[in-house]
Specification:
Length: 242
Amino acid sequence: MVQLKSVNKHYGSLHVLKDINLEVGKGEVIILLGPSGSGKSTLCRTINRLETIDSGSISIDGKILPEEGKELANLRAEVGMVFQSFNLFAHKSILDNVTLGPRKVRGLSKTEAEEEAMALLRKVGVDSQAQKMPAQLSGGQQQRVAIARALAMRPKVMLFDEPTSALDPEMVNEVLDTMVNLAREGMTMIVVTHEMGFARRAADRIVFLANGEIVEQATPDEFFSNPKSDRAKDFLGKILNH
């Protein structure tokens, strides 16, 4: 579903992604782990061209990600993204936030878009909040709305860039539970997170990055019980003994 071939990215003299090769199958859940500054978020953001790449190629469902223009917008619509900050439109109701994309981009009627939106809000457990404004919701509820909004575009792939890092601890699990349910339903997901319990529970594969390179890939059981590289052992030692 997603394929990165020899992807390189620089910020000036800083080489942040070094020859990244990665394939993500349909319905696979990939968790990107690694220390701060390892390139995880940058990698995630290149997959819908929020960050440009200097060399290599990225394809989604067999189509190369275009540089710009209408083709990029079309392909981007197939890649949902949920960030640390919820980025909801503060002046629009929850329902309007979720229906805006499908009406503007997919051309759905107001009725169709609202029916779909309510079904998605039910799925993420916030349908009772549909008429409220974002500021009236907790952080965890807002993040679940952001997930519903991304799903409303019927994406083939969902990208999550540390979706729980801005949340109070008691709100983290409600968002992670929503993501676990999505994974069980077969959504292709690429997730940057520091939530190790979630990584163990939801991932098909852990991809560990350090210094802009993929250092190792393994199932959660293998990675957490028997990491191969010294870099991963060091990382896990610090995280798990914290």
